Amino acid sequence: MGIIETEQLSKVYVRDVIDTEYGRLRIRFRNRKTVALKNLDLDIPKGEIFGLLGPNGAGKTTTIKILMGIHYASSGTARIMGKPLGERSVKKRIGFLPENPYFYDYLKGWEFLDFYGQLYGMGRRERRAKTEQLLSQVGLSHAANIPLRGYSKGMNQRIGLAQALMSDPEIVVLDEPQSGLDPLGRKEVRDIIISLREQGKTVFFSSHILSDAEMICDRVGILYQGELRSIGRLGELLSARVTEWELVVRGVGDEVLEPYRPSLRRLSKIEGDFWAIAEQESLTNEIISRVIGRGGQLLSLTPRRESLEDFFIREIQQGSKS
Amino acid sequence: MNEIIAIARNTFKEAIRNRILYVILMFALILIAFSGVVSELTIASRERIIKDLGFMAINLFGVAIAVFVGVSLVYNELEKKTIYTIVSKPIGRWQFLLGKYFGLLLTVWFNVLVMTFFFLATLHFYAGRVAPGDHGFFYVVASSLGKAVVNIFNWGAYPATHNIMPVIAVTGLELAIITAFAVLYSSFSTPTLSMFFTVLTFVAGRLNEDIIRFADQVLRNAAAAAKEAGVAVVKAPLVYYFAMGAAHVVPNLGAYHRTVEQAVYEPQIQLWWGTVVYGVLYTIGILCLSILIFNRRNFK
Questions:
Q1: Confidence (pLDDT) at B284
Q2: DSSP β-ladder status, A219-224 and A227-232
Q3: Contacts of B298 in chain A (CB under 8 A)
Q4: How is chain B split into domains, by residue range?
């Protein structure tokens, strides 16, 4: 039995629309239905990092909203830790970070975490200790006394992550945790997710950034137009061919990487670190050996395979052929 | 309970950091302060003018704060999606809504208290100016501020203002009803519509007794007409049922208004405890309705 289970979960949004035709003065009221999720079956075992992937509008956020009790399912059932949704004892053991979170920007960093601690029913001393620990874990100790309106997007995402971990949850649900972040920010979020797995937590997250998902997920489910198209390990689902490599290097001067600029798809400098995208494996190897030869450091190397979009196009084309 | 307190405290913090609150409060304080100046230009009793304007300012601006701050509080949570992180926490939606209500009510009451303080100080100031043994401007200002502080804690400390605080308490209750309406409307509609509905409810509530009087008059006319025509059974016209129906749906705020009038025109006020019980029960009813609506909602 999985820690998160859904059975035939569906969501249909009904919107009232008024049709008006002034020519013949006809006014008609009717419902416009949008199917956001169709018969979703999921079974996530304890301790797994599961990525729900898909393009915008695929139904990822709808699934998460239903699981978190923000929306009600139109049909089907879902259970978390064997209990129906909305059970308070279960909610206590779940941490949640919504997509593009906006928080109470008039609160200071520590006030913000303290507030969520109160909602979990934590005592004052426990809240204080947890707030300090989480602020340092997400690298925001220095910003504890700054109101959230002074936070950058990356800081906002990190304080959001801290809020999700406030009750030391067993399940962490993250909706697009890496959207809008630069590569270093994404890496930080990745590291936090991986450390959650090491602590034995179950992570359920949605993303449309395949490379990030690939690095951390045990399993992925791919949603398209509200339907679960495939589920399994990402490597099994997508073509193994790498199309480009993303490198982040540190500790070398401009003269080391500048000569490669014409043959690179992208080369930029962020806070002294270089971020480059190469399309050939040989070029990638050459850059790595040159950087290391000059005493530099390779911070990350991300091979990028077929994109999610390519995968869908492939799948849709195959579907239309058959 | 702790969860409700946490939400209420956070709501209060949010409201108190809202600029519109200070604009409204500033207008109210200016009006109260100038009520004394206005009183010098009229023929009526100076005290009566100050009281009349002061109560009016506290009442109207109290409603304005409930409306302007209140209607956007729940809506903002939905619009900015902060509600997502709240409802996923181990708290019920009803606790969230009650927390919002009490936070807003605390904001309204806090502002009423600030306005009342200035109102009392103004009354003491003008009373001090005409008292024998003139002590000079600054002495009178300082002593009236001090008297206002004493008056807030000891309601009957000075004969001239002995019935101010009980009336403020009644006004506070009336504002509690209006605040509940602001939360009710904002739990399902946009701020502009909620604002419109809340103000409408306030006006209709104040006119409630007039609506009943109108319905009675309609019935009396019908009875007279029936008598003239020699019909034994009086058939009430449809408009009677409509008016009575409306009068029973909207809150009856007339009793609260009468208490204010008594404080201005009469030496003693008569508090009818039924009004207090009515206000509390009505507020509970409206909050239950808000929770019922809010529980069924899908957030955007």
A1: 95
A2: antiparallel
A3: 13, 70-72
A4: 2-192+276-295
